[in-house]
Amino acid sequence: MGVLMSRRQTVEQVQKVTLAVSAFKDGLRERKSEGATSRRGTIEDTVQELREEEASSEAGSSAGLQQKEESRFRRAAWERLRDGRGVEPEDFDRTTFFTPPAFARPTRREQDDEPIEISLEQREQVTNDETCEVCEVWTADSLLPCRVCTRVYHDGCLRRMGFLPQDNTTEVIEAAHSETGWSCYSCDNLNLLLTEEEMSSLFQSFQQGKVAPDSALTLNVFLGYKRLSNQQEGERPSSEEQEDQDALQFSALDPEKKGRVEWVDFLSHESVLQLQRTRTQNALLRLLTGKERERARATFLSLDQHGDGLISEAESRRSQHTWFRKRHKEVPSCNVSISHVGPISESSPASNASQEQVLLNAEPEEPSRTINWPTFLRESAIYILAARPNSPAIHLKPLA
To answer: How far, in Å, CA of 385 to CA of 285, rounded?
Structure first.
């Protein structure tokens, strides 16, 4: 009896499925008879549909010609997806594909100020994206990786969006594939880390200090703005020592000694200071990327000679300067001045010499407090962020 019931249930299920399929086919026939186009479920059907649309648009007027052009682009895109092949950036000739993105400013969350645990022993395996951030096409070695995030780009896509000048293409390509690295247009702009409220406060300071956007600042204008900024924050009038530090910061922002600070570098410098004023160290830690945390680990481990998880305060301060290590223009392997975030790779032949010279062979100093890994990372976070831009300027000069 059980077997008979099982067969009966099977027959009923088959009948139900048959009815459902028949109803579905009847619905398709009705749609077709009414002249409406149906949406296919496969890429093959979509390509065929686009071909039919293109053929039907040939009989139209000038508006039909525009529709035919749009249909041709869509059909080509679907065919590339169907065949699993991409398109080179040079094949794009529509400017709408290369419109610079609209950036959305971040918002603060309540948990941003809570402590965050970042392990020293547990390494992070950071892998770059496989396709270009702009056109979402994979072309192997021609992609430029960002040293801060995992995004990669075609130089052609960057050029068409206006983020890569024609005369600077070779330098950027060499930098992106060097030990120094290159920051993408998103990571290069420190101002994008500010919230709407922080940015509004910063621009109010610019207006009160009579600093015109997109204009270079001379030393006198820079020092005058600093004096006014200190007074607005309720600090004591600028002392001679404070003005000397501001003058040193101006010099760090003017590495080519032109006697002026470019607006982009000044904005990055003030954006970092705004982050330092409004964010806690825990909040700044959350802004670091996996690549930046890995480079911080490598730096700390190179200083921890005894393997006890402790380094001296003097060593920690010296390491803050190494985040801004520069690649000079006379280096034959890369003719681009760009800030270097973190130590050179341990596998690099130059790593031992540079780290030993900068970090380990410093003159002995008086004993100071020791610093563990969490403290080192919290105190270094602001300098790691400040070293993101590609500009050779030092946007936050560490204390001596």
So the answer is: 10
